[in-house]
Amino acid sequence: MNNLKLIILFLALSILFSCASNQNKSYVSSDSISVSEFSSSVELLVSDTNFLEDEILKINAKNPSVQRILVNSDAYLKEGKLIQANSELERALRITKKEGAIYLRLAHLRYIQGLLDESKSFASRALLIKEISSWERLLLNVYLKRPI
Amino acid sequence: MKIKFTLGSLGIIALIIVFVISAAVVAIIDSRVTNKLEGVLWTIPAKVYSRSLDLAEGSKVNKSNLLRELNMLSYSENKNPSKPGEFIYKKNSLKIFLRGYEEQKSGLFEIFFQDGQISKVTNQLGISVDIVKFEPIAIGGMYPSHMEDRILLSWPQVPTILIDTILSVEDQNFFNHNGISFRSISRAFFTNVKAGDIEQGGSTITQQLAKSLFFTPEQTIKRKVMEAIAALLIEFHYSKEEILLAYINDVFLAQSGKRAVHGFGMGAQHFFGTSISNLETDQIALLVGMLKGPSLYNPRRNPNNATNRRNLVLGILAKRRHINSSSLEEYKSRALRVVSPNFRSETKYPAFHDLVRLELRENYEDSELRTQGLKIQTNLDPVLQDSLENNIKKTKAQLIKKYGKRLIELEGAAMAVDISTGEIKAVVGSSNPSKFGFNRSINAIRPIGSLVKPFIYLTALNKYDEYHLTTILDDSKLSVKSGGEIWEPNNFDKKFHGKIPLHVALWQSYNIASARLGMELGYDSVQEIFRKLGIDKSIERYPSLFIGSFEMSPFDAIQSYQTIAADGFYSPLRSIRDIKDLKGDIDLSYPYKIEQRIRPEPVHLLKFAMKQTFISGTARGYPGKTIESWQAGGKTGTSDDQRDSWFVGFAGDLLVLVWLGFDDNRPTPLTGRSGALEVWKNFINDIEPSAVEKNKLPRVKYVWTDKKDGLVSGEKCKNSLLVPFIIGTEPNTIPPVRNKCASRPNRNKSDVMQKLKKVFEEGQG
């Protein structure tokens, strides 16, 4: 339990830091948000897989053709057709390897397939992408830190 | 007791014997009928396909490679593409009538290019569709002994015009007879006499189907009787629709090498490169016309005969009012439009086929592969495969020209893989790549020479608190007792280079510095890195290991470099993408697997040193801009007495490895640079990989250092190089001689912020 709290605190700090250092002002809300509010949001992400999945599927690819494929993949995921969902994600990766949205879904797919090491590896791999947003970075960190 | 035979009883016995024999004959024929119509006819060999190409908005594209692929897919150029299989290439766009594949509908599409990327994909109405998919190239199959190949059509897939044409030409009375039709025979006789040519056959469709049950072509009375019995039995067992469908799937249309093309589904693919549903009436007339004589009316071999026969069939269709007279003239005026065959029974790419078979063997029985109609989609990129094959042959010819006939027996192997995903794109297992036989890419186990050095240096760089790129190594004379003898390694240039930074020792491939480093690191540490790179084989504990006595196959060698090229993420190499059953559902998939084996920072440092191989080392020669855009890096390897010439290099998304040598292990005049690298360069220059971006590594910092002493230098200082360091390991000593030109470390940020940043970044892989 203590570990979980530490993870949540770490992620909350991460997002605060990410927002502060991000050039994109759209992430900086005009309303101030307390650390405890961050903590509770992050706690949801860490503890509730369905909630996390919803957040991941909201992340769109910048490239419209990749986005079209991700829509297919998301539909397969919702139907429980994980092999087909994976095929679509790999198809998207062949178009570009610069979209965090693809790797996030791969990390999530492997997580729900029970392949936890692979899930972490996909998350780590995605963190090397240059154009990744702070929000994507935070979600990827969830997979790196999720308790098994 | 004597039995008296009367004439009557003898007659009864004779009748019984005749009855028993007849019953046995009928039973045999019956078993043939059911076996064929429920067995052989429905067994379909597994087919192996290349990857299907997606052209998507935003994806990079190499126009010349795309044109090569269209050519391989038998697309033809037409100013106004209006039929499946036609395209026109303009300066910045490709207008193409796709044949359709899986979920991709056939239709006219336009693909626009800008700055080496696809900027837009539109349909016929000009509406953006984002992405189009090309059909894959069939590259081989797993055939049963009878070598029959077919694409099974179900009743709804059979076009009405095909049924009308078959019935008009072959058997007008099909739905009214019981297998044999004396009316048909006599009508065919009169029709043919009247026409002065054979417009109709006398055999019913059922008889023709029965004929195919007997695999020998003999024409005897006995055979005719058996065929007639078989026809009656077929009619007895099956409905008219089932018989017609079996006929449509079974008729013999062509011989392609050892493979026999059966049925209209496969016929459409074989002659027109598309599915039966895409064929027009004239094309269907051509196929139906061929039934009379598949060889005589083969449109590729005998186009005039085929045209005349097609026109005759079209005339029959007009006579039976299936087409009107204006359509008749229009169809008759058309060219045959057959495409070059793009399917071979024996794969064009035997080395790749070997890998596919090896992967399949783990999950499928041979009988399943030969009968279940599985569709094996591989990762093979046909353009890369062709280029790799051509360039190994071309380079061998160039080397023979340079070094003489002693290289005539020179052999080779090469592989190209996608760095991140481990997809195998191309494989060559011989200097004569289309030849079946010893596949050197997986079976030639050879000393890897200096290809081993990056593994040793990675062992060091992975201990980043002890080693970095400017750690000074010793390249002076070395004598070691090994196996009871004194071992004294030499450098290729037979010189000693004294104290040198680690990165220089690697890209200059100095043996003595590398051996000393390996011994310093110890066998256990090196073995551990070997394991992380996917090498399970135990290392022999001799110091010669550190400079290249270690033996590997090209396949295993490129696998271990995949982990390096992919920044420490190991992905098993795979030739198969997925396997679908006859219904098109995925039966088995081979997904992208990934495992972070080494942190990306030490690998990044190693890749920097491997990039120097292209800038100043053994693979120098490419312009700096090109090396940067490809994020290229590589390593040459030459074994003792130049018996093996190796090069492995990454450029863009591709990792390519080449080996050259003799099968009997005799010395060659080649080094890694003069042999294998030449193949690599010819291939890479031909396919021109796309540019890739540098990764983001927040914990890596670039510092100007001196190429000789490894200490801090500056952009304006001589012999300086911008070298990456893991933050905290960078040098900070500025020698007095470089006081004026050296760059000062930036110390503006507060220590607290640095520490906070470090805490944050530690969570990021």
Describe the structure.
- The complex is a heterodimer of chains A (148) and B (765).
- By secondary structure, chain A is an all-alpha fold.
- Chain A has a domain at 47-145: Tetratricopeptide repeat domain (Serine Threonine Protein Phosphatase 5, Tetratricopeptide repeat).
- In chain A, 73% of the residues lie in helices and 0% in strands.
- Chain A is built from 8 helices and no strands.
- Chain A has helices at residues 2-21, 35-47, 49-57, 64-79, 82-95, 100-112, 116-126, 134-145.
- Chain A starts with a helix and ends with a helix.
- Residues 19-29 of chain A have low confidence and may be disordered.
- Chain B is of the alpha+beta class.
- Among the domains of chain B are: 47-139, Penicillin-binding protein 1b fold (2-Layer Sandwich), CATH 3.30.2060.10; 148-333, Penicillin binding protein transpeptidase fold, CATH 1.10.3810.10; 449-549, 3-Layer(aba) Sandwich (Beta-lactamase), CATH 3.40.710.10; 700-761, no CATH class.
- In chain B, 37% of the residues lie in helices and 18% in strands.
- Chain B has 24 helices and 30 strands.
- In chain B, the strands form 10 sheets. A 5-stranded mixed sheet of chain B has the order 9-1-13-23-24.
- In chain B, α5 (205-211) packs across α6.
- The longest helix of chain B has 32 residues, at 7-38.
- Chain B is elongated and about 125 Å long.
- The N and C termini of chain B lie far apart (102 Å).
- The interface between A and B is large, with 40 and 36 residues.
Structural class of chain B: alpha+beta
Shape of chain A: globular
Per DSSP, the total helix count of chain A is 8
Helical proportion of chain A? Answer: over 70%
> How would you name the CATH homologous superfamily of the domain at 148-333 in chain B?
Biosynthetic peptidoglycan transglycosylase-like
Tally of extended strands of chain B?
Answer: 30
Numbering strands along the chain, what is their spatial order in the largest sheet of chain B? 9-1-13-23-24
Shape of chain B: elongated
The largest contact between protein chains, plus residue counts on each side, is:
A-B, 40 and 36 residues
Here the CATH topology of the domain at 148-333 in chain B equals: Penicillin binding protein transpeptidase fold
Terminus-to-terminus distance of chain A: 12 Å
The CATH architecture of the domain at 47-145 in chain A would be Alpha Horseshoe
Query: Which CATH top level class of the domain at 148-333 in chain B fits?
Result: Mainly Alpha
Mean pLDDT figure of chain A? 82
In angstroms, what is the radius of gyration of chain A? 15 Å
